[in-house]
Amino acid sequence: MENTHDKAAAPGDRPHSVEAHLIYGQMDDPLWDYSHHLLPPMSSSATFRLDSAQRGAQGFMEFAHTTDEVQVRSKAPIYIYDRLGEPNKDMLEQNLAYAEGGDVAVTFASGMAAIAGVLGMLTGSGSEVVAHKVLYGCTYSLLTNWYPRLKIGVKFVDFSNPAEVAAAITKNTRVLYMESPVNPTMRLVDLQAIAKIAREANVGRAQEDRVYTVVDSTFASPFCQRPISHGIDFVVHSLTKAIGGFGTDIGGVVIGPRWSHDMLMLYRKDFGGVLSSKAAWPVLVVGLPSLAVRMRQMQTTAQQVAEFLEQRPEIERVLYPGLPSFPQAELARRQMVDFDGAFAPGSMVYFVMKGASAHDALTRAERFINHIARSAYCITLAVSLGNIRTLIEHPGSMTHSAIPADEQVGKGLDPGGIRLAPGLEKPADIIRDLAASLDAMA
Ligand SMILES: *Cc1c(COP(=O)(O)O)cnc(C)c1O
Fold first, then answer.
1. Domains by residue range for the chain, with CATH
2. Could you identify the atom of ligand 1 that is nearest to the CA of residue 251?
């Protein structure tokens, strides 16, 4: 198993585990004057004192010029204004790039700001995005409600069929966009196969016409999958989910190749969707350092909960990459691996209620979820995931309720489908609450 982290923007060339690096980062780096703090202080300051006009000039010259030759570079970073950069975000970005095995990371105000940022950098009027047909709702809305106004074309195809993706690429295509696992159905996209299609499409293309691959890896988190190691160009995450982990703050990140750093920084500076330093700090000192231990625990829980649900007669099917019944079990084992190379099927479970018809399944799922909302102690009806509290939601009557049950089937959605995001409770706690609400359905 290739260790993707050896070549990453490494916080030091030490022989320690990824987990250790995510706790310590480069805290003894001469760039950071925090050697007497156990933790970096929250660097909440909208603007920064410049002791001379020259220092200001030097700071502006260095901003977003990491890949150009700046003649004389200052020893420590020169901070000017929070929207351009400040210590907490910069430290967090180093560690996020490291976690994903990418060259650079740029944080944003939310997952959606990060998605809009990477797509905004890669596209322009007249260009096209080819995207998987099932996407996070707001990403779908961005592409369908706003991109037509920008004269950016969008085609939706089935990324589980790589030939369809290859056939959709034209000379104007700049981005292949996907999630894996897909929200909420837990289907996987073969990232190596899609990366290969982009490589083939790029043969003979001019640099400015290249096709780039972008993966929203939020459902997996860097603990379960590092798309860059599979040949993908850009990874985006909602930091609000597993990486933040505690549900206190909204944030997002783009991780990608070195050349993209300056463009992403300029984009963020001008469109303004900057991550607050107060939101970067808990991700830096609490969320990312505890990602591995939380994900390991949640994954064990998800496996047990999925096995429990598969036994229940009320449930038609359970989709969890760790189950032997998972339709893409082989792909899951190849693609979803933890920092040590062990199979890492993740923390998200999807299951479908039985029903005599689409409408019946939807009604039963709604009844079940309402029972949970009223009576469960440690399962909360709420959107989001990767939280220390177990969260559950029913897309059919919530996020996709505008679509009638029969039409949901046509769009590849299950009216009885339920998404469960286990937290840090013991598996038996979650199973007890699920069993009580399933029993109440009888
Ligand atoms: C939550 C989420 C987003 C959006 O992130 P925000 O931080 O809420 O803006 C994007 N993609 C996926 C898969 C998500 O779960």
1. 4-289 (3.40.640.10), 291-439 (3.90.1150.10)
2. 7
